[in-house]
Structure formats: structure tokens, C-alpha cells
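Example 3.2
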Amino acid sequence: EALVAAAKGASPADEIAYLKAACELIDGHIAADAPPSAYAWLLREPTIYTLIETTLVDAAHRCGELALAAGDCDLARWAARKGLTIVEGQESLYRMRMQAAYEAGDRDGIVQAYQEAQRAAESYGYAEEVQPETQALFDQLTGTGLGETSARSTP
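Structure, written as C-alpha cells:
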């Protein structure tokens, strides 16, 4: 939380450094590997759990945005993956991965991120239907206009 707070109002370079440091602390779901005796209270406090989760995902997203603006596609992809370890279904992070892959000239990376977004949507009960923004970005970046059909035909 201190790193995210320090990032606010900092220069873009310092903001990236603070947010990257915050993202480096992400290693899966919050308290997933911790002994129950250490973090059982957190699971009983959904408001605090959600606040921590949101803070970390937002930090990863902002880090990725800044990285894309600076032309650092690798950092943007890394930040998106870090955020997705917290909330697998956060489609804005899949869109960030798609955009970073596009800017890096990695068409397979665009398709892979899109397919992962589809699987995440399906796991949340949306029958593989991604958000309209995700579909539109995929169509724009791939130039297919075919959306799910073209992505599904790729292994």
C-alpha cells in the first residue's frame, strides 16, 4: 500500500518504479499460501480483502499503462500477468496483454491473450463471451473482424 501511495503524484519514471516494486510483491492470490492461522482474519473481512485485491490489480494495470506509453511492451505484459494472478478474469489486463503483443509485433501473443480471456469468461459462466471492448480490440488488432471464429481456429 505504501508503494502505491508513493506512486501517486510521482514523476512517470518514479511512478513506474514504485508500481513495479508493488507488483513484484504479487505472488498469486492474496494469502493463498499463508498458514490459516496467519490470515484467517482476512478471509472473514471481505471488505479488506477486496480493498487489497483492488489496490494490487489497479497498481498492475497502471504500471502496464505507463509501460505501454513508454514503449516497454515486456513490462506491460509482465504487469498484466501479475494482475491476472490476483484476478484471473480482469479483462482490462487481457486487453493490455493484447495491446502489448501488438506493439511488439507478436500476433500469436494477441491471439493467446484473447483465448485466455475467453477461457476466463467461460470459467465465470459467460460461455466464452468476452466483453465488447475485448472483442473490439481483438478485431482491431488482428484485422480479422471474425473474433471468436479466428481465435478458436488457432491451437
